[in-house]
């Protein structure tokens, strides 16, 4: 098992915006079914890396392989069906749509078809039924079935966060990218979120790359933790080891390493 290639293998990724280097040769690996916490001060490059992995940004240099495939070679609309799904730092839901409709948006990339199959009698209706069934199944799993027909704007913030997670999960990804999922949640909701992430990993074997500022959450559920500062990786390892790293302490406290 130790010699198996990781599910996600990021090597030497550079991203520049004009004269600013957002990522400087970042390396990172995530194994099958692993929860990897990605932490660092504001501006460290954490969300930039997620944007590279999800096709929002293009890397200037480096290599990213996912399940043995070149992820950087895929257009953004192919990354979800390839097995990578994500949530966003700020809610990206459709406010006038119901919970079910928002989650079904995530299901459609998996309903494969083309212009020819769409002309076949009943194809569109079957595809819609399949997307609805997938969405309802995930909503039930996350305890959201009773609000499936509610507009998302009528729901508490913590519930809307779970709706966005449901939309990512409906693709049945092998890798889930979570960008600050605990933002805006209260103490009890953060604890419930941690339990949910672990349960999803244990139930489906999904790997998780978790970007988060809530240190108790990250250190409590992560198998490994990677630390970025000023666009470069400064530490990686088990949570207890990373917490003791002098360079990590310096990055957060602002004192010399």
Structural description of this entry:
The chain starts with 7 loop residues before the first strand and ends with a helix. Strands 6-7-8-3-9-10 form a 6-stranded mixed sheet, sandwiched between helices. Strands 2-1-4-5 form a 4-stranded antiparallel sheet, with helices on one face. It is built from 9 helices and 10 strands. The protein has about 260 residues and is α/β, with parallel strands linked by helices. The chain folds into 2 domains: about 1-85 and about 175-255, Rossmann fold (3-Layer(aba) Sandwich), CATH 3.40.50.300; about 90-165, no CATH class.
CATH superfamily (homologous) name of the largest domain: P-loop containing nucleotide triphosphate hydrolases
- Return the CATH topology of the largest domain: Rossmann fold
Q: Quick one: CATH class of the largest domain?
A: Alpha Beta
Distance between the termini: 36 Å
Number of strands: 10
Helix run count: 9
Mean pLDDT: 88
Q: Main beta sheet: strand number and arrangement?
A: 6 strands, mixed
What is the percent of helical residues? 25-40%
Helix and strand composition category: alpha/beta
Q: Proportion of β residues?
A: 15-25%
How many distinct domains? 2
Keywords: ATP-binding, Nucleotide-binding, Transport
Organism: Thermopolyspora flexuosa
Domain ABC transporter: 8-255
Pfam families: ABC_tran, BCA_ABC_TP_C
A few lines on this structure:
The protein is of the alpha/beta class and 257 residues long.
Which descriptors apply to this entry?
ATP hydrolysis activity; alpha/beta; globular; Rossmann fold; single chain; ABC_transporter-like_ATP-bd; 9 helices; six-stranded mixed beta sheet; P-loop_NTPase; 257 residues; four-stranded antiparallel beta sheet
